[in-house]
Automatic annotation (TrEMBL):
DNA-binding region: 11-30
Protein name per its UniProtKB record: TetR family transcriptional regulator
Pfam families with a match to the protein in the record: TetR_C_40, TetR_N
Domain of life: Bacteria
InterPro entries per the UniProt record, alphabetical: Homeodomain-like_sf, HTH-type_TetR-like_transc_reg, HTH_TetR, Tet_transcr_reg_TetR-rel_C_sf, TetR_C_40
SUPFAM superfamilies xref list: Homeodomain-like, Tetracyclin repressor-like, C-terminal domain
Annotated TM spans: none
Length: 183
């Protein structure tokens, strides 16, 4: 329901029917619809983070990790549309969460800053900029499917890397490195 419409006003009865469980079973797991939808968003964002872990394993350069993350996100709008719709509709409220993609991005930012790869700024502020840019990219993929999503992601990744202090030529090269397949 979150992926399809973003509607959180559905009745508990409609939710239970959709999940093919009894109405009373709902309350065995959740105290409210709000708790259910929050758990669904957290689960979706953790799945998103795990997908990145799986596909980006072995990349040590924090700049390459961030660029690849932007590019994989654009591709996931096609390969995992339900997951990306949840991110699109509910991701802003989770930019600073302790799980999902946020914790991984914060880790990569901190590694990049500690190594001198990124200009030292407050990591939480940098995470806000990255998260907002990523959510804008996801929105762009759904709002303008006629645009080349891969090219938009490469361009945004290059801009983000420059924002984090990489020289222009380095940001250009890193944002265009070969990308692992989603499979």
């Amino acid at each position: 329901m979150l992926a399809e419409t973003g509607d959180t006003s559905a009745s508990i009865q409609a939710i239970a029917e959709r999940a093919d469980v009894g109405f009373g079973s709902f309350y065995n797991h959740f105290e409210s619809k709000t708790e259910l939808f929050e758990a669904a968003v957290v689960d979706a964002l953790e799945e998103f983070g795990q997908t990145f872990d799986k596909h980006l394993a072995g990349i040590d350069d924090p700049a390459e990790l961030l660029a690849a993350g932007f590019r994989l996100s654009a591709r996931m709008a096609d390969s995992h549309p339900e997951l990306m719709q949840v991110l699109r509709r509910r991701g802003l409220g989770h930019i600073h969460s302790d799980n999902g993609l946020s914790s991984r991005a914060l880790r990569d930012l901190q590694v990049g800053m500690a190594s001198g790869r990124f200009t030292a700024v407050e990591p939480t502020v940098a995470l806000s900029a990255l998260g907002g840019t990523l959510l804008s990219l996801v929105e762009l993929r759904f709002a303008r499917p006629d645009l080349d999503g891969d090219e938009a992601a490469v361009n945004l990744a290059e801009m983000v890397l420059r924002m984090l202090g990489l020289p222009a030529d380095d940001a250009h090269e890193v944002s265009r490195r070969p990308l692992p397949e989603l499979g």
